[in-house]
Amino acid sequence: MLKNDNFLKACRREPVDCTPVWIMRQAGRYMKEYRDIRKKVDFLTMCKTPDLAAEVTLLPVDILGVDAAILFSDILIPVEAMGIGVRFTEKKGPILSNPVRSEFELNALLTPDNVKSEEMMPFIPQAIRLILQELDGRVPLIGFSGAPFTLATYMIEGETSRNFTWIKRIMYTDAALLHRLLEKITTTVIHYLNMQIKAGVHAVQLFDTWAGWLSPDDYREFALPYVEKVIKGIDKKGCPVILFANGVSGILEQMVDSGADVIGLDWRIDMGDAVRRSGNRVALQGNLDPCVLYGEPSVIRRHAKDIIDKYGDGPGHIFNLGHGILPDIPVDHAKALVEIVHEETS
Ligand code: CP3
Q: Is 43 close to ligand 1, i.e. is its CB under 6 Å away?
């Protein structure tokens, strides 16, 4: 039994005691406790050691008082299970070996089914079970996956990209190759999320971080159908599905049609517009500019209140940032945000 289920109620657009809030990347380098663990082990080892992943997942619940925990892991974990080497560098972020740019690399990819997923990523269900024990029902646990298009950008570019020239080159020269890659990723993501749901997560978020870099027509061809396939294909067991993209303004209506229960918004869309355009058909998550947290609590309050007011009185708002929290944000400011959202909505 959950002691605080405001987050899940908001996902289902049911009334809540106060607006639930969590923060994307809430367990990260802005926290001293995180940096202390990271001094001793590299990031991937943290992800793959259930004790450490559980410890780090709990930090923001204990320190900030957020209304949901999110599994500590990374969207590139299942990419590694598909047979691509992944490492994380301090300066450039993730670097992938043998990026997929031709038939040859595509054919070599694995698509781990449910049995293989558990064999190759046993640390995921292990971490989930540990976290659920340690949470002891305080707040729900969110599982997640990268959405197919965003995972494809990493698999093709080989790193975080500025212009996505490799994936777009393939999109406009050999669309069939890209579709075949997206199919393989979709199959992998379905099994990967089913593994997390079976282990007990209460909700799942699909991160389509880079989908907003597509034109609306390309989104309709290369991103939306695969998100829909994932949402239809997973055995949800009642878990709400959150679909997040960075740069939603050109694709919001399509995202609303995806079958997701909640749409995660970046900060470049006005919350009032998002409410009108989504027509009360989904819950909305977001959407404070992550940089507002550089400001003093009075500034944070003004901007948070603005979003809360624009969402209005209806049910179904989950407060969050419009993208991940930055590594140099003062922890006190993140904590202040959580308090402010609760105060202003109760
Ligand atoms: O939200 C959470 O607290 C859960 C953990 C989580 C991480 N990454 C931890 C992480 C989640 C949900 C992610 C998702 C993720 N990973 C996304 C989608 C969300 C988004 O931010 O758009 C993406 C694109 C990635 C890929 C990734 N992982 C990049 C580009 C980087 C480097 C950038 C950076 O901040 O260093 C990572 C590394 C990463 N993922 C860190 C953390 C805490 C930092 C690693 C470190 O300790 O050095």
A: yes
